[in-house]
Write a structure and sequence with these properties.
The complex is a heterodimer. By secondary structure, chain A is mostly beta strands. Helix content of chain A is 0%, strand content 50%. Chain A is built from no helices and ten strands. In chain A, the strands form two sheets. Chain A has a five-stranded antiparallel beta sheet, with no helix packed on it. A five-stranded mixed beta sheet of chain A has the order 2-10-9-4-5, with no helix packed on it. Chain B has no helices and eleven strands. Classes of the chains: A mainly beta, B mainly beta.
């Protein structure tokens, strides 16, 4: 597995504001995956990015993979209360299959 | 299609007791994982199994053992539980390193 650093750890936003979380690796990743965990729930897969500079969108969510494949971001436009939860990234490497996660970003939305 | 099933959902142990957490998946996945989740620490990998018959240590293996019983089942054993092992445990599986992982519902373990 690949170690990734994720920031910020916590993010408070007003409903309707935008939100971004970042993942950074010191080494090149083969892919990066993003997961969401609702309070009291289990992590659920959102998306996987594989190509350098790749950008994918899911409704109000935009995922980017850096040109050097060492960083990634998740941006949510106009947050809603349903976006509350913890967002995790997991960086893949060409080596062992251990799936390791960043510490996650807790998104807290104030109505 | 049940996905990933973990048992039990809740457990209270006394210090020194042993127990096994069970995990089974019905998706024909090759890789299976055990994590613990503590406040502020994210998901930490305990052990994983990349294929039937193999297991490898993750970030925090001390105090745990695992068994990949067959392709479907991957169990986690605490031989002598300690209060520091109080946590929420998640099992996950995926077909290979290029595919999404599916998680079980979690086991909330308290060691007193």
């Amino acid at each position: 597995g690949q170690q990734v650093m994720q920031i910020p750890q916590y993010q408070h936003v007003q409903e309707g504001e935008d939100f971004t979380t970042y993942c950074n690796s010191s080494t090149t990743l083969s892919n990066i995956q993003w997961y969401k965990q609702r309070p009291g729930g289990h992590p659920v897969f959102l998306i996987q990015l594989v190509k350098s500079g790749e950008v994918k969108k899911q409704k109000r969510l935009t995922f980017q993979f850096g040109e050097a494949k060492k960083n990634s971001s998740l941006h949510i436009t106009a947050t809603q209360t349903t976006d509350v939860g913890t967002y995790f990234c997991a960086g893949g490497s060409g080596g062992a299959d251990g799936l390791t996660f960043g510490k996650g970003t807790h998104l807290i939305i104030q109505p | 299609n049940a996905g990933v099933t973990q048992t039990p959902k809740f457990q209270v142990l006394k210090t020194g007791q042993s127990m096994t957490l069970q995990c089974a998946q019905d998706m024909n996945h090759n890789s299976m994982y055990w994590y613990r989740q503590d406040p502020g620490m994210g998901l930490r990998l305990i052990y994983y199994s990349a294929s039937e018959g193999t297991t490898d240590k993750g970030e925090v293996p001390n105090g745990y053992n695992v068994s990949r019983l067959n392709k479907r089942e991957f169990s986690l054993r605490l031989e002598s539980a300690a209060p520091s092992q109080t946590s929420v445990y998640f099992c996950a599986s995926r077909f290979n390193r290029n595919t999404e992982a599916f998680f079980g519902q979690g086991t909330r373990l308290t060691v007193v």
